[in-house]
Amino acid sequence: MFPIVTVARKQKDKEKETEKPPQEVSFDTQLPSRDARRFVNPVSVTAAVIVWVAGLIATFVVAEVLHRSGLVPLTLLGSALVGLYLLFAIKVADQWEKAVILHFGKFRGLKGPGLFWIVPVVEVISHLVDQRVRATDVTAESALTRDTVPVNVDAIVFWLVWDAQKSVLEVQSYFNAIFLSSQTALREAIGRHDLAEMITEREKLGQELAKILDEKTNPWGITVQSVEIRDVRIPSELEDAMSRRAQAERERQARIILGTAETEIATLFAKASELYRENPTAMHLRAMNMLYEAIKEKGSMVIVPSSAVETMGLGGMLGTTALGASAPQVPPKA
Questions:
Q1: Where are the domains of the chain?
Q2: Cα dihedral 143, 149, 151, 155 sign
Q3: C-alpha–C-alpha distance, residues 224 and 157, integer Å
Q4: Which terminus of the chain has fewer Cβ atoms in its 10 Å neighbourhood, N or C?
């Protein structure tokens, strides 16, 4: 038994070694610790290089022209220190940025945009806060609506930092806070609405989310301008069932419309029959009109029973019409 237990323990140890420890996922693509411009920038590098080159030239002039070799170390040291000071003292912030300055770890103020100076070692730039409108993509997968329908919803949150001081001092990572708050609020909003409301009233749902998020993020110096629901996806099986239901509903409406039309036509026919029963002449005229419509085309022929002709009195009328058409016209006497 001992070898078996030993082998089992070795296998478990190997599985533990192969398992990867969970890693913290950060949603901020512009972390302050990774922003090299907080430390150096092209302007400071250029100024430092110019000072260092000038120091080398001055060292050469002191050593070769003035023949004072004792001043060479001082010249090199001075130029190196001045270059290092300019390298870490000159800072540049873009037009849309604010630099948060800490003096020995204590908040001193905001600087920028543009060129500004700090005291190296004593002062540091904690954050370069982007104050432009930013768009964050938020997804809620397999969230249940109020009518217990699983949906996948994609939304876009438009927000901006209006107070850089609050965004740095009040919350650890404002980007992660915005993302997680938006995701939570989106799931809560999905649970309060039916599927039909989410599909037909996306704008209303977005306004509700924007109001909830703005109330939560306003103390952080962040405002949420709008939330747009980009897509609402449902399972394919449920989509097929909804499609069949919609098709059946349209067929039912079509049958109702046809039945209503036939009822209206029957009602009109009933009224017409009452009129024809009270006025046989109108019925005869209607029959003659139908015959005329049938034979007015060239080459067409309609066979009418003799009983119908006698009933409508068409024989006398047709004969009278024919005689009237064939009789010669006599000019009137003067």
A1: 31-129, 134-234, 241-288
A2: negative
A3: 7
A4: C
- Contact 166/219 with Cβ under 8 angstroms? yes
Kindly report, residue by residue over 185-244, the tens digit of the pLDDT: 888 888 888 888 888 888 888 888 898 899 889 999 999 999 988 888 887 776 676 677
DSSP string for 164-186: HHHHHHS-S-HHHHHHHHHHHHH
CB 97 within 8 A of CB 66: no
pLDDT in tens, 150-159: 888 899 999 9
Structure tokens given for 146? 């109020």
State whether CATH 3.40.190.10 applies to domain 134-234: no
Task: Round to whole Å and give the CA distance between 187 and 33.
Answer: 32
Is residue 313 very low, low, confident or very high in pLDDT (cuts 50, 70, 90)? low
93-to-17, 35, 39, 57, 119 alpha-carbon distances in Å: 46, 12, 12, 32, 16
Report H helices in 140-235: 164-169, 174-191, 195-200, 202-217
Query: Does pLDDT of 178 surpass 80?
Result: yes
Tokens of 18: 């192969």
